[in-house]
Specification:
Blueprint (H helix, E strand, L loop, with lengths): L1 H5 L4 E5 L2 H13 L4 E5 L5 H15 L11
Parallel strand pairs: 1-2
């Protein structure tokens, strides 16, 4: 995400734990990135599906999807 932010990407990030998510959000914003940070568990279908409308409201679409868990 940091490298994408340096290249000017607009980012949607998500994570189950709010504190590390907010820390990452602030680091990305410090690089000038527009960031939507969503707390949620991607292994939970309902939580995953709830992220879609929020993403589309903020960015109107997704050009690149990168998933990284673990």
């Amino acid at each position: 995400a940091l490298e994408l932010a340096k290249e000017g990407a607009q980012l949607i990030i998500c994570g189950r734990s709010e504190a590390p998510l907010r820390e990452t959000e602030m680091a990305l914003k410090a690089l000038g990135a527009r960031v939507l940070a969503l707390v949620g568990d991607l292994s939970d279908t309902k939580e995953r599906e709830a992220m879609i409308p929020a993403t589309l409201r903020e960015f109107k679409g997704v050009d690149i999807l990168v998933t990284n868990t673990g």
